[in-house]
Amino acid sequence: MDLVPAPTGKSSSLKSPVVEVEAVDMAPADTKETITTMENTAAVGNEAMQSEYETDSDDSGSDLEAELEVLHDEELRCGIPDACSLDEAIAFRNRLHEVGKAVFVQETIGADTITAKKLCTAFGILPPDFLDGAPDSAYHPLLAIAISREFSRRPKLPQYNSIEDAVKLLKESKKIIVITGAGISTSLGIPDFRSKDTGLYSKLEHLGLSDPQEVFDISVFREDPSIFFSIAKDILPTEKKYSPTHGFIRLLQDKGKLLTNYTQNIDNIEANAGVLPENIVQCHGSFATASCVKCEHKVMGDEIFGDIRKGLIPECSSCRKKLEDDSLKPQGMKRKRSTSATQKRRKADGEDSSDDDEDYELPTPGVMKPDITFFGEDLPDEFGRRLIHQDRDQVDLVIVIGTSLKVAPVAEVPGVLPRNVPQIYISRTPVSHTSFDIDLLGDCDVVVSELCRRAGWDFQHEMIPAGEKVEVSNVEGYESRHMFKVVGA
Ligand SMILES: [Zn+2]
């Protein structure tokens, strides 16, 4: 019952093109700018701070930040002289998220209720030795970094930490959002093709691309689709197999717990596992369908798989038919290309894009482009619509699997959802730019099978050995971080 159009502001911010967003915990590179920002805060209000923390920089932080010593919550818990206690620190963080940066600054250092030096410790920054004896204002730049970093972060919910908490959440939740990325398909041998260090991109060097990601750039595609199709056969879904993690998502569906699987993957493997289309949002599109770049005629993806596998550029059958019909009319275009000319063009790898072609609208059928989202294209509308108008009010658990969450739009999901909804992270390595309540680290296939085992769920998959034994150990210094390792079968 969701026919209300998305408010344009919200949805357009979610419809941003697929771009890498830098980790938001990156501090502004220019310390001077931070000082200025800090001094202006009371007068200018939130906007100055806002622009400061939104400033993205390619520098990996200032010298100042490099020298900062991080204070972990565990240390605050034990107590450090002149530092906030862990309880105080959590109260300050919660207050910041409650009132925003400007008000927070006003009612703390602005009202002289606490020194900037001590407040830094609430956000995990140990006052550096070189500032010893300096006036409190010398700590303002540090505090600005600390506050901005914390504010852009969803605060971790303190009540969820252990593996038992994770299992309990899994068992009790009824409307689970699962966000997935390339990491759930790698056990099937499918390369993380958007990442720059896959073998796939080395194949592209001979094409003379300055940046391998140009393969997925819509303007490059429009100019010369042969570049994309020269590698498309390597990323085309083949067998009907799926990983244990896909099977886990299917299991959540069978248990009536799956609200939506937002996947960044375009391999459409969720379908192989039996996840229903109505439970999936393919955030970057998929090979499931393809559309003509000229007339937008849409077909099922597998109709063009034959051409793709042969290394051909698939053409639109609707355009072709129209051209054939037109050629029968007396006013038909005189310079209609013959089929053999088209074939020649396919093989010429775009070398024949002479001026003539551009000046003269040649009647060729449009190229069929798989409906995966290229850089420079709008994301499927379904993403923002469903997230904002349907899922946001229902979700009771978020599980992020096999993605570093650095690519829009999924990177924005944790921040868009109500902050009291618990979030679990499953991946090989933890991320620092987003706070999850529980981090379950390791091979995601292993993690999900162990979760099912502990939940008492019957979960079988050919890639999970029958008596598999998994050891779960706590990562030192992080109450809510757990490492999963197979120790025997
Ligand atoms: Zn067409």
What's the quick description here?
The protein has 489 residues and is an alpha/beta fold. Among the domains are: 91 residues, no CATH class; 177 residues, Rossmann fold, CATH 3.40.50.
Properties at a glance:
Rossmann fold; 489 residues; 38% helix; alpha/beta; disordered N terminus; zinc; 8-stranded mixed sheet; single chain; metal-binding; 22 helices; binds zinc ion; 3-stranded antiparallel sheet
What features would you describe in this structure?
The longest helix is centred in the first third of the chain and has 14 residues, at 31-44. The radius of gyration is 26 Å and the shape is globular. 38% of the residues lie in helices and 13% in strands. The model is unreliable at 1-62 and 336-359 (pLDDT under 50). The strands form three sheets. Strands 5-4-3-9-10-11-13-12 form an eight-stranded mixed β-sheet, with helices on both faces. A three-stranded antiparallel β-sheet has the order 7-6-8, with helices on one face. The protein has a two-stranded antiparallel sheet with strand order 1-2. The chain is an alpha/beta fold and 489 residues long. It has 22 helices and 13 strands. Strand 9, helix 21 and strand 10 form a beta-alpha-beta unit. Among the domains are: 62-152, no CATH class; 163-188 and 242-284 and 379-486, TPP-binding domain (Rossmann fold, 3-Layer(aba) Sandwich). The site of zinc ion has 8 residues, from helix 17. The active site is at 284 (proton acceptor). This is Chromatin regulatory protein sir2. It comes from Aspergillus campestris (strain IBT 28561).
